[in-house]
């Protein structure tokens, strides 16, 4: 079949997010200018450069109690910093719980009783037990087409790795925590198998 997004697919649900999958999840922790912390998962997320390391997160939609975007995006625009916590299979229930539409003045971190630690390079909390966390400083915000669509670019200024996720050979071993990924619809997947292929030389 073929369809144009502006006219719709005719299917019961839009398949776009299922096509572009799996997507890593940025479990973003922030602290607003008012001192209130926020935690929310974002699946329009990826790494975009090595040197310096940089990431992209996109926020879609809005909240009635925010002037622009959602809580995490608003906090990032206010303070210029954010932390991306990486989630594993064991985090699936609490990650999903943190995606609920809590009021702007309510901290998901406190509500869900999550242990946090302070970041080293930015004024922001991180999840203390996350397999990895990226301390990020906002470098650019880009308004995208469509109501409430916003892309945030950040430079990674500090990286935390949980000790038990490092192998004896010094590799960050994703199978030790099984990364949680987002698909389409209400579907998630977990990475629990690896294989290697060497890039061919011409």
From TrEMBL:
Annotated transmembrane regions: none
SUPFAM superfamilies given in the database record: FMN-binding split barrel
One MF annotation (Gene Ontology) recorded for this entry: FMN binding
Residue ranges annotated for the Flavin reductase like domain, each copy included: 20-174
Protein's UniProt name: Flavin reductase like domain-containing protein
Organism of this sequence: Celeribacter indicus
């Amino acid at each position: 079949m073929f369809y144009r997004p502006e006219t719709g697919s005719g299917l019961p649900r839009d398949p776009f997010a299922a096509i572009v999958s799996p997507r890593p999840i940025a479990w973003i922790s922030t602290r607003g200018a008012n001192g209130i912390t926020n935690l929310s998962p974002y699946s329009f997320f990826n790494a975009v450069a090595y040197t310096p390391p940089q990431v992209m997160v996109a926020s879609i939609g809005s909240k009635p109690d925010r002037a622009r975007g959602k809580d995490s995006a608003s906090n990032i625009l206010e303070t210029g910093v954010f932390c991306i916590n990486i989630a594993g299979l064991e985090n699936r229930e609490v990650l999903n719980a943190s995606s609920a539409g809590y009021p702007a003045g309510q901290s998901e971190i406190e509500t869900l009783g999550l242990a946090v630690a302070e970041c080293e390079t930015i004024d922001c909390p991180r999840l203390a037990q996350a397999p990895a966390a990226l301390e990020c400083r906002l470098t650019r915000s880009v308004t995208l087409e469509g109501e409430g669509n916003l892309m945030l670019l950040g430079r990674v200024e500090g990286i935390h790795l949980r000790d038990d996720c490092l192998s004896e050979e010094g590799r960050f071993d994703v199978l030790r925590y099984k990364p949680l990924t987002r698909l389409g619809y209400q579907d998630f997947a977990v990475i629990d198998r690896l294989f290697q292929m060497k890039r061919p030389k011409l």
